[in-house]
Amino acid sequence: MNYKKLELRENLEFNSNYIDKSSFFQYQNKETASITRASVEVLSKYKKRVRILTRGLLWTDDLDILTRSNVTVGMSLPYLDDELSRKIEPQAPPPSKLYEALLKGYKAGCRLYVAMAPTPPTMTLDDFKRHLEKIIAVNPEVIFW
C-alpha cells in the first residue's frame, strides 16, 4: 500500500496532538482506520485532544472512541450535489454519504466540525444557504469555508 505514514504533531499553543488529513488518509481503508483508532486510543490515554479531518466513511465504525470528549471529528463537505461530485471527484464518496456519516456521528454524540470548502464556482447564494442550513442540522462546533 502506498500512503503517507502517520504523523502526530504537537500543537504547543493548545497543548494537544492531532491527526491531520494532509499527513495521513485516516479512515480511507481498514488498515488506515485501525492505525487511526490505535492513535486515538493512545492520545486519549494521555488526555490529549484529538482532531481528525477525513473524507473517509469508516470513522463511523469507531463511534465508541470518537464520542470521547477529547476527540473532534471533521469532514470536508464543500457541496451537497452528488452529480457534481461524480464529475469533480469520481473516486471520492458522494456528498450524500458524507452527510449521512456526519448525521450518524451527531446522533452518537460526536463533537464535529465541517469544512465547506472549496465551494464550486457554480454554487449560488441560495445553494450556499441550503447547504449551510443542512450542515447546521448536525450541530458542528466549527464551520469554515
What would you say this structure looks like, in words?
The chain is α/β, with parallel strands linked by helices. The strands form two sheets. It has a four-stranded parallel β-sheet with strand order 3-4-5-6, with helices on one face. A two-stranded antiparallel sheet has the order 1-2. The chain is globular, with a radius of gyration of 15 Å. 37% of the residues lie in helices and 19% in strands. The protein has one domain (8-144): pyruvate-formate lyase- activating enzyme (Alpha-Beta Horseshoe). It has helices at 30-45, 63-66, 82-88, 95-108, 125-136, and strands spanning 8-11, 16-19, 50-54, 71-76, 111-115, 142-144. This is Radical SAM core domain-containing protein. InterPro entries: MJ0683-like. Keywords: Iron, Iron-sulfur, Metal-binding.
